[in-house]
Amino acid sequence: MLPPRPGQGAPPPPPPRPGDDVTTGVFRSHWMIVPVRVIAVTLVFVALVGPILSTFGYAWVLLMAVAVVFGALAYALPSWWYGTFGLREDHLVVHGGLFLRSSREIPLSRLQAVDVVRPLLTQVFGVAELRIELAGGDGSAIRLHYLPRELAERMRTAVLAHAAGLPGRSPDAPERPFYRLPFPLLLGALTFRVPILLAFILLLMLGTAFVVFLEAGVLGAVVPLALGLLRYYWGPLARYTDFYASLSPDGLRLRYGMFQRRMQTIPPGRVQAVRIVEPLLWRALGVARVEATMAGYAGARQGDSSDLLPVAPRNRAFTLVNEMFPGSEAAVVPLVVNRERLPSAAGVDEHLFVSVRGLFCRVTEIVPVERMQTLRLSAGPLARWRGRATVDVDTPPGPVAARAADRDAEEGRRFLNALAEYGRRARVPSAGTERWATRATMRAERGPAPSEDEKTEETPGDTPGEAL
């Protein structure tokens, strides 16, 4: 092939393949879902009903198994054919059901997170599951099973583009690396925890007692200990192996998993609150865990997806908080220490409310003032007699429960007034979480923000910061 002559333009890019555009058309799960469902139903029938029918002879078992296979196929095949989905402008339309037909049309402006999940078996066959988390509780999540991996990735990109207010054909947003969790650090941090170390020691003691005294009764305590270690040690180890976090205009992207690979994308503004957990022994290593409350997750899904960084250096954890809440600096918020009972501290500035509590396990909870749901100043009979009060900052259900506990009543009132004032200032019409990519354009259409001279003047001493 001859090179182009000077002045001659480069050849045009090749046209997109017919299957690359997911913004139009109707799609289905991979056809493999049909034989998988048939095989699963047949195995359940043989395992449960087969032993009962074997008294009549294996011919009956074989005959009934064949009938179950054809019956399952007669249901699975039309169910797969009628189970379709597709994008219609900025809505995701999902059809399903065979006898009872259903149709769901979901506005993507309610999108909270998009996950591409690939369990071990699906990795072998090159398929994936697309999970779309929406605001609205447990029943609002959309799960599209057994999609070809390329289709799942392209659909994730198109869904995020629609949610951001961009055309669905927009390319995947670029990303920049943020943090990769080394496996030795993950292994050491999971081991270097007081409950795990005590369980290991107790397990060794019970094993020694069984060998020395040949007492079989100790095995009754070995089983629950072993199951507990499998859940709280092996579970996180397999889950967060090869953990990688990156930042993009679409939000925070997390990739992790040993046997079940997962790519989680959290769009900007979906994180409602964050807490940084530092267990006693982790402080010696200088590492912490970052957990978040996300409005789209509820119930078990909240606990399953709340970790933003399972193990990371403490400074990296605070850097991520600043990335989640642009314009803030969580580490420099001035804190007021409470020395009445257990040591704790709380502080507020124009961006964040920060509380620190815990003697053995230090927990730092951070809530942006524009994401606060309600503010409560509470005091029981004994607290009123002592002149104390507690300020609670409520957020959507999740791991974060920020509060300024057991404060002087006047100090608690100042905290409440400062939080209310900062929250009122922060809640502007452009602070919503919908269509984050075009929010700057909408602000430009409304006109420039008022200058400092146009704002209402405040006398010194009236600002919430000076009140504290």
Describe the protein's architecture and organization:
- The longest helix is centred in the N-terminal third of the chain and has 25 residues, at 58-82.
- The strands form four sheets. Strands 7-6-5-11-10-9-8 form a seven-stranded antiparallel sheet. A seven-stranded antiparallel sheet has the order 14-13-12-18-17-16-15, sandwiched between helices. It has a four-stranded antiparallel sheet with strand order 1-2-3-4.
- The protein folds into three domains: 27-178, PH-domain like, CATH 2.30.29.30; 182-239; 270-429 and 459-467, no CATH class.
- Helices cover 37% and strands 27% of the residues.
- The protein is of the alpha+beta class.
- The chain crosses the membrane at residues 34-53, 59-78, 185-206, 212-234.
The overall strand count is: 21
Radius of gyration: 28 Å
Largest sheet: 7 strands, antiparallel
First-last Cα distance: 74 Å
Q: Structurally, how many domains make up the residues? A: 3
Mean pLDDT: 80
User: Which strand order spans the largest sheet, edge to edge or round the barrel?
Assistant: 7-6-5-11-10-9-8
By oligomeric state, this entry counts as: single chain
Structural class: alpha+beta
What is the approximate shape? Answer: globular
- Overall helicity: 25-40%
Number of helices: 15
Please state roughly what percent of the residues sit in beta strands, choosing from under 5%, 5-15%, 15-25%, 25-35%, 35-45% or over 45%. 25-35%
Low-pLDDT stretches:
1-19, 440-446, 448-467
